[in-house]
Design a protein that fits this description.
Helix content: 40-55%
Strand content: 5-15%
Number of strands: 5
Structural class: alpha/beta
Number of helices: 11
Order of helices and strands: HHEHEHHEHHEHHHEH
Oligomer: single chain
């Protein structure tokens, strides 16, 4: 057989192979709630704990309930992930502090997330979160998370448009691989208005203990409030799923927010 004839046959076979459809079904279907299901402008930010003493008592009772659920979580080898996002000074750290107040420290880890270190930036952006996932029977708590790709990295231009638009499906796939293995997950967005944020910023600047928590980045982010709000609602529309829902917490009143978060976490752990 001539060389030319063999070449034509090889090309014909390659062309035939290209036409064969791939019968493999999609591994996951991302069942996302309809766009607009969660809206920032529909959150009642006037929600408050009217009786502060009663609210404090309820918080303690919920902390005890969370601790009991944590023990059951450990004994049954169930794994849980809680994600905390929200505006600067919304109270993420305070809420996490109340959530873990009575927990056994051997059964949970809190991961404060900042800009990636040099060794982390050498990997895909999800890598540093994958290696921090809790082991069986543990609770993983993320103070900020992989959603930075579609929030701060999007708004500040650290990720180009192709990267952050692609990230919605990447995040859905990442979370779905976890929930498919039985991981329970809830994601909190602590919401507050600009007036309340401004008061908290100024209070931090006047407090020598809390002054380190406020800096130029916080003020710069505040100037981009509307752009962040758009990014937040796009995030809800693309990643609010039944297996890993977003829960918006009204955050103007800290007691109300902490009580609501504790109750939601208890329900997740008791599922």
């Amino acid at each position: 057989m001539s060389k030319d004839k063999r070449g034509k046959q090889a090309k014909a076979k390659a062309k035939t192979r290209e036409k064969i459809p791939d019968p493999t079904p999609e591994a996951f279907e991302f069942k996302v709630h309809p766009p607009g299901t969660l809206r920032l402008d529909e959150v009642d930010l006037s929600a408050a704990a009217e009786d502060k003493k009663k609210a404090d008592q309820e918080i303690v009772a919920l902390q005890e309930r969370v601790y009991a659920a944590q023990i059951k979580n450990h004994l049954s080898k169930r794994t849980t992930v809680f994600v905390f996002e929200g505006w600067d000074a919304a109270g993420k750290g305070g809420a996490i502090k109340r959530l873990t107040a009575l927990m056994d420290p051997r059964g949970y880890k809190v991961w404060p997330i900042a800009a990636p270190r040099e060794n982390e930036a050498a990997h895909n952006y999800l890598w540093r979160f994958a290696v921090r996932m809790p082991e069986k029977g543990e609770i993983g708590i993320f103070d900020r998370s992989w959603y930075g790709r579609v929030l701060v990295e999007r708004v500040e231009g650290f990720a180009d448009q192709d990267a952050w638009t692609r990230a919605y499906d990447e995040i859905n796939a990442f979370e779905r691989t976890l929930t498919a293995e039985g991981v329970r997950m809830a994601k909190f967005w602590i919401h507050l208005d600009k007036k309340e944020q401004l008061q908290r910023f100024r209070a931090r600047e006047d407090d020598p203990i809390k002054k380190w928590k406020i800096g130029p980045d916080d003020w710069r982010n505040r100037d981009k409030w509307d752009r962040y709000a758009t990014a937040v609602e796009d995030m809800f529309d693309r990643t609010h799923r039944p297996d890993a829902p977003w829960i918006i917490i009204p955050g103007n009143d800290k007691r109300f927010a902490r009580r609501a978060i504790l109750e939601a976490c208890a329900r997740v752990l008791e599922r």
